[in-house]
Amino acid sequence: MARKTGFDISVASEIMAVLALTTSLSDMRERLGRMVVALSKQGEPITCDDIGITGALTVLMKDAINPTLMQTLEGSPV
């Protein structure tokens, strides 16, 4: 019997899912731009790019890409 392994990403919002999957700042900008944030009266999806907020979202999230580095009082990484 083969062992099957994997992982699931559990996120509270689509923005955090984008953060978990992004590989670079430009990749994050593209992914954020494709997020659907509303539907028009005709039922068409409205994205972040459509309403012009992709740049602002990217600026807010750009520092979140960097890993959080912590250490103990002895200097060991956590």
Shape: flat
Low-pLDDT sequence parts? none
Strand runs, count: 2
- Shape-level CATH architecture of the domain at 14-63: 2-Layer Sandwich
Query: Could you please say which CATH topology of the domain at 14-63 applies here?
Result: Domain 2, N(10)-formyltetrahydrofolate synthetase
Task: Please state roughly what percent of the residues sit in beta strands, choosing from under 5%, 5-15%, 15-25%, 25-35%, 35-45% or over 45%.
Answer: 5-15%
Described by strand count, sense and barrel closure, the largest sheet is: 2 strands, antiparallel
Distance between the termini: 36 Å
Helix run count: 4
Task: Tell me the series of helices and strands, N- to C-terminal.
Answer: HHEEHH
Q: Strand pairing plus helix content: what structural class? A: mainly alpha
Radius of gyration: 17 Å
Helix content: 25-40%
The first-level CATH class of the domain at 14-63 is given as Alpha Beta
What's the average pLDDT?
Answer: 87
Q: How would you summarize the topology of this molecule?
A:
Layout: H1 14-21, H2 25-33, E1 36-39, E2 45-47, H3 48-51, H4 54-61
Antiparallel strand pairs: 1-2
Please characterize this protein's 3D structure.
The chain has a domain at 14-63: Domain 2, N(10)-formyltetrahydrofolate synthetase. It is mainly α. Strands 1-2 form a two-stranded antiparallel ribbon. The longest helix is centred in the middle third of the chain and has 9 residues, at 25-33. It is flat. It contains 4 helices and 2 strands; from the N terminus they run H-H-E-E-H-H.
What keyword list fits this structure?
78 residues; mainly alpha; Domain 2, N(10)-formyltetrahydrofolate synthetase; two-stranded antiparallel ribbon; 37% helix
